[in-house]
Write the structure tokens for this entry.
Amino acid sequence: MSKARILAVDDQRYFRELIEGLLADDGYQVQTASSGEEALHIFEREDFEVVITDLVMPGIDGRELVRKIKERRPEQDVVMVTGVVDVQTAVDAMKQGATDYILKPFDRLALSESIDKILQRRRLRVEHARLMEENLEFMGLLSLFERAVGLFSTLAVGPLAERLIEGLCLETRAQTGVLWVAEEEGGRMLRLVGARGLVRVDGEPERVELEEVEAAWCPGLLAGRSVLAVLPEDADGAEALYVPIRTAGETIGVVRLADRLDGESFADSDRAAAEKFCELGGVAICNAMRFGALERRSLRDPDTRAYSRAYFDDAVRNEVQKANRFGQRFSILRIGIDPVSGRAPTQDPQDVRAHAVQHAHHIEGALRGTDLLASGDAGVFYVLMPQTDALGAGILVQRIRQTIREADVRGAQPRSATVTFPTDGTQPETLFRVLDERTEQSRESLLSQRPELMRSQPLDPLLDRMLELGTVEPMEIEGQILRFVLEDVVRRPADRGVLFVSPGARWLPEVLETLHEVRGLAGRTQIVLLSEGEEREDSPQVTWITKSGLDSRRPFIVYFGDGPAYAMVGQVTLAAASAPIFQTADRALVEHLTFELMRELGIALAE
């Protein structure tokens, strides 16, 4: 029997094998991982007395790994190993929760002494806990209270929900948990705010009425303290434990626990622990809901009704966590309103303020109920759009522009930029950096330099103007571009967008051949193919346009959505070895072309 189980994490194979060999010789059972990501995957499934991790690794480094491990199991012992001789680095590692810190190169004695000390302290802790449990039964309840008290340090409903589910799973040894909480205090509509374990989140309702929960899942819940009921649509008849979350006699949430670790049904002690934990959890959630309402009121401009940038940044960080957990996308919009036209640069501050308030109200009127509007610098607004991809964000931008146009606001020249998680970044800092870059690019866009392009109606004159800015290329370049972009878009099935393809007569056979080759590759991009002639049967992904106001002899391709934006416009001329071609990745221009084509061709897409 091994002395202890140890997980060794190092991106260098030599050190992994060295640690494994040294500790195996001393009687330890060692498992290795080559990255922080692999280590977390193993850690979710198995228990270890000690985790040994290198500090400097690509991806999740040692500090981040310690933090994530401590989030899951605060009592886990971790030894940090590194070749960086830096006292501050050691201090930072210990602050993150590392139990010990040793330097490379190390010998068997140093490593063994560190592990022995940790295991000795661990044995003392285990023995102490065993004695307390055997001799003082009430300490179990006291311990539960102590663990639950930690809930009150979190004042955001999302992170609090995760901590509550984690605590309940630990108390009951459940492997899965799902939590729905009222959208507002006293409300009867519950929304999904947290999940843990082997849960198919996409199979859980995003919103559900409280009465529906009791009627369809667990009769008697609202009148009791907990209910055991069969999981909905479970062919094996597996039982789940439903516990209401109450405060002041009002039910503000429901948690469902399932898949007990030992495969047995939940015992009375499990139900009692869950009920007691949820009593305290109800108070904590109620506090978080009230704090959130107060924070929203205090951090919201009374005139523009826009939130502060600080509140917006916090909301983005929470949205990143939620999107990561539930596999969702979201987008951020930055929209800048130029000052009132025809005025001197030193405008009256009251006029500038009134102008911003006016635009804020128009922007808010175009938003959905789930979108969040915030103000930045003068004339700049930000919008957080949950569960929205790049194409959906573009549709919202068009709606905002239309609202401002219909209001006939003097001097209104909205300039926008959007980013989408995770396509453009997976961390708030990255998303805002890309957003700043795209804002600068929009200022340098061809639409900004040549504003007459935006006013070109109908589209053929616009395409002619763009072609004037092109370069002369061999004619076959057109066909190569059409084929490449079409193949690239179809082979990115997870990305959603819209692709307009006009092959003209000379490239239609090649485009049809490409479509035939990629047939069966399901994707989320809607392909709109312009071609005169006999009408063909539409596939779910391809829409044929056989009659339109556009010159069908002109080859062009336009893609907008997740991933890079692109447009190419070719020459109507048929008999030529070379001809002008205009190509651009100017996102603002491509977005304008996309929605003008949608308007011209009557294409409607869902957000």
Q: What stands out?
A: DSSP finds 18 helices and 22 strands in the chain. The first strand starts at residue 5 and ends at 9. Residues 340-346 have pLDDT under 50 and may be disordered.
